[in-house]
Each structure stands twice: as C-alpha cells, then as structure tokens.
Amino acid sequence: MKTFALHFLCTLSLIGSLLAQDAKPTVLITGANRGLGLEFAKQFAAKGYHVIGTARSPEKATELKATGSEVVKLDVTSEQDIADLAESLQGRRLDILLNNAGYFGPTLSVGKGKANIHNLTREEMLNCFKVNTMGPIFITQALLPNLKRSKSPKIINISTRSSQLSVRPGKAWGYSVSKTGVNMVTWNLHGELTKKGFVVISLAPGHNKTDMGTQRAKLTPQESIGKMIPLIENLTKKDSGKFWYYDGSILPW
To answer: How many other C-beta atoms lie within 10 A of the C-beta of residue 100?
Structure first.
C-alpha cells in the first residue's frame, strides 16, 4: 500500500511539473551549450520561458543546466537523435523553434593558407550543409506536431550577412554557401506554413565575440541577443518570410 501511494504521489508530481511547464511559453534552442545558443537560453529563461536546450553531450553542458533549462541530447546531423528528440517531446507544445546550431567549416586548410576553390574538400563542405542547411529542415519536420500546438508558432533560422548574394565574396566557403541554403529553407517553410499560422524568418545575429566569431568581433552575445529576443517576441504573420538583422532592420536576400 505504501509503495502504491508513493508511485501515485510521484505521478502527481510529474503531472504537476508538466502542467507548470505547459503554462509557460516554450522555446527550443539547438546548439545551446555555448556561444549564442547559451546566451539565448540565459535570456529566454530570465524572461520566464521554459527553455529546452539541446547539446551533443548533455553531461558536459554544465552552464546550460545552470540556466534552469531542460537539457536534451541532439546532434542535428543524426537521424536517430532527431527521432529520439521528437519522441521525448511527444504531446508537448512548442512556441518557438530556434535553429541555432551551426558549423563554420573550412576557412583554413592546413599548410595551404585560406580556403579557396583550389583547396576546398567535399567532406568539409558537406559537413556545413549537414549542420547549417539540412539540420533546420529535419529538426523542423520532426517538431511540427509540437509547434502546431501553439497559438502562434515561430521558426527562427539563424543565418548570417555573409549569406547575402549582394555582399562582397568572402573566404568562408562552407559557412556562407550553406547559410544561403538555409535562407531558401526559410523561404520554402514560409510558403508552406504561414497559411497555417506560422511565422518563419531568417535572422542574422551580427558578428559576435564567440568561439566562432572570435574576439575581433564588435558585438557581445549579451548585446545582440538582448535585441533579438524582443524582435522574435513581436513578430507577426506579416513579418514572415523575411531576412532580419539583429537590430530589427530587414536585409536583402
């Protein structure tokens, strides 16, 4: 009898915890264990969101756990991880999907200087596409049932100004080409989902002081994300299908 009562109380506690989570707006952030993803988690959590942060190695994501976020395992290139994520979130509402996980790719080729058409490798280019372009496609696909439970679902694909065809060509081959690809992903998702109440945008965070951006950057993640979160919160259907800069301006594709 005592065992039954203990199980019953544990079940009630779990139900209560899930109901409390469901009462809060929920955001899922890929690649949330460091850099921009971690700062997004910190600031969304501080604003009262229930944050689901993904990391390839959750056991090492100590800073992410310290934000109070729910931490789940995800390698965005792994079909099994994506399936496991969808199963673990089955039946739960998701208000914002932030496709943040990124891979910078080939900028330097050992002993050959900067990456260029002469020394690019197929493997490194494919790695960029697997993370930066295909990742958002299949994460979104897997989590559509959760997003459909929201009254105003939003999909935010993190891009970059170097993806723009109007900018001066740079040396970040894999990163820029695959991010141009994710802009097309945004456009296609917008075409399919806005009639169902979704808002889908690409968002460029600017050049930030992170492991990827290096200390040469002018922006800090605190500054950049401090402006991006209000932008995300205030998006409406008329804003869908656009390429936004962190400061609230619209960028040409």
So the answer is: 26
| Residues in a beta bridge with 155 | 97, 200
Per-position DSSP letters for 101-146, written without gaps between them: ------SEETTTEE--TTT--HHHHHHHIIIIIIHHHHHHHHHHHH
SS3 assignment for 7-53: HHHHHHHHHHHHHHHHHCCEEEECCCCCHHHHHHHHHHHHCCCEEEE
CA distance 34 to 221: 11
Closest to 175 (Cα-Cα) out of 183, 193, 209, 148: 183
Give the per-residue pLDDT at 167: 82
Bigger pLDDT: 48 vs 5: 48
**Protein fold of 94-253:** Rossmann fold (3.40.50)
What are the residues whose beta carbons fall under 8 Å from the beta carbon of 22, sequence distance 6 or more?
A: 92, 93
Residue type, 204: A
Phi and psi at residue 136, in whole multiples of 5°? -60, -35
pLDDT band at 110 (very low <50, low <70, confident <90, very high): very low
Tokens of 139: 């994460």
Domain ranges in the chain with CATH number 3.40.50.720? 94-253
Distances (CA, A) of 115 to 44, 105, 108, 160, 175: 36, 10, 5, 19, 12
120 CB neighbour count, 10 Å cutoff: 15
Q: What gap in Å lies between CA 186 and CA 203, rounded to an integer?
A: 10
